[in-house]
Amino acid sequence: MKYDFTAAIDRRNGDSIKWNRYGSEDVIPMWVADMDFAIADPIKQALLDRVEHGVFGYAEVEPSLRQLAVTWLAQRWDWQIDPAWLVPLPAVVPGLNFAVQSQPQLTSLVWPQPVYGPIAQVAEHLGLAGATFGVSSDGWDLQQLEQQLQQGARTVMLCCPQNPIGKTFSLSEYQQLAKLIERYDAYVISDDIHGDLVLDGQRHLPLAKACPQLAERVVTLIAAGKAFNIAGLPFAFAVVPNAQWRNQLQQRLAGFAPAPDVLAMTALTAAWQHGAPWLEQLLPVLTENRDYLIETLADLPELTVHKPEATYLAWIDCRQLGWSHPAQRLRQFGLGVSDGSEFGQAGFIRINFACPKATLVEGLARLRQAVLATR
Ligand SMILES: Cc1ncc(COP(=O)(O)O)c(C=O)c1O
């Protein structure tokens, strides 16, 4: 079946935080990380069938869903896991907080910056000390990470691929990192929610697969929310080979996490069972949008665009423009983006290009107008 990624679906006046933020203002929203595309037909059909059933009592994660996760990770990421390692989570962000809390040697935290805001907020939420190390298209700043490990940090939170810069990490980058993790007896929680969104026909390499020697030290968080555009139907898994960490995580969740959401599990099951053809059509659309964005902005020396290797998010350095709050400035020109300050790097913006081409064309025209008006 051929899917249509060109239709402009009206999301105004509904429950979308992306579209509600600007109310009746003439602003194209290209900020929060969800896509303006309709979900795959098999997911929609599975949801309709489940709703038709009509009874929505407490649910549990069936062995068949665990098996689907195993198969998905084997086929998409070439990563073999044991279904017993899977711990169901209400969503990735709560799972991240719970996974940190249940870490075997909980001390201070460290994470690469710029990063997705809720990762940077974990330390504050849990009342722990926290510090950052740099990350850019050139990789992690491992010297900075080592300094933090020397000062006692033992929990490293990663985001692979990295939101917002869209970087994927290579085997050698992971191996360098792994040396530090082992040397300092540290633990890693890797948020791989964007792992199915690697562009240019490439595939995601998770840390735990790249460095099997770290198996007992790594928790990997996986979900279908980003790749299948079902973030409003939250559900995630933690992959936890370490039995002690897994038991502690399960104990933490008890009493805090709700029973698994029936519709979220229905959507996830359909996505992993029948969603691959949709995803295979989506990825070239995202790659094309990414390339269009880069070409369209190439003649503006005021902007430095970091080419994302994964995700549908472009990270743009606007510091030469001297705007104190780029997102506020762009809103005046009718474009809604995320401000770099939300990710710990002021002077940048993050643009979500997971929209029909016509929307992207108009959004980028507005961005150009704003830059030209500053000359
Ligand atoms: C890196 C990263 N992790 C987690 C999330 C959110 O995941 P969830 O909705 O499952 O908590 C996002 C959403 O943008 C994200 O970019």
Protein described:
- By secondary structure, this protein is an alpha/beta fold.
- It folds into two domains: 17-41 and 276-374, Alpha-Beta Complex (Aspartate Aminotransferase, domain 1), CATH 3.90.1150.10; 47-274, Type I PLP-dependent aspartate aminotransferase-like (Major domain) (Aspartate Aminotransferase, domain 2, 3-Layer(aba) Sandwich), CATH 3.40.640.
- It contains 14 helices and 14 strands.
- The chain has helices at 17-20, 41-53, 63-77, 92-101, 117-120, 122-126, 142-150, 171-183, 207-210, 243-253, 262-274, 276-297, 326-332, 357-374, and strands at residues 28-29, 86-89, 109-113, 130-136, 139-140, 155-159, 187-191, 218-222, 236-239, 304-306, 313-317, 335-336, 338-339, 348-352.
- Strands 2-9-8-7-6-3-4-5 form an eight-stranded mixed sheet. Strands 10-11-14-13 form a four-stranded antiparallel sheet, with helices on one face. It has a two-stranded parallel sheet with strand order 1-12.
- Strand 4 and strand 5 (139-140) form a beta hairpin.
- The longest helix is centred in the C-terminal third of the chain and has 22 residues, at 276-297.
- It starts with 16 loop residues before the first helix and ends with a helix.
- The model has no long low-confidence stretch (mean pLDDT 97).
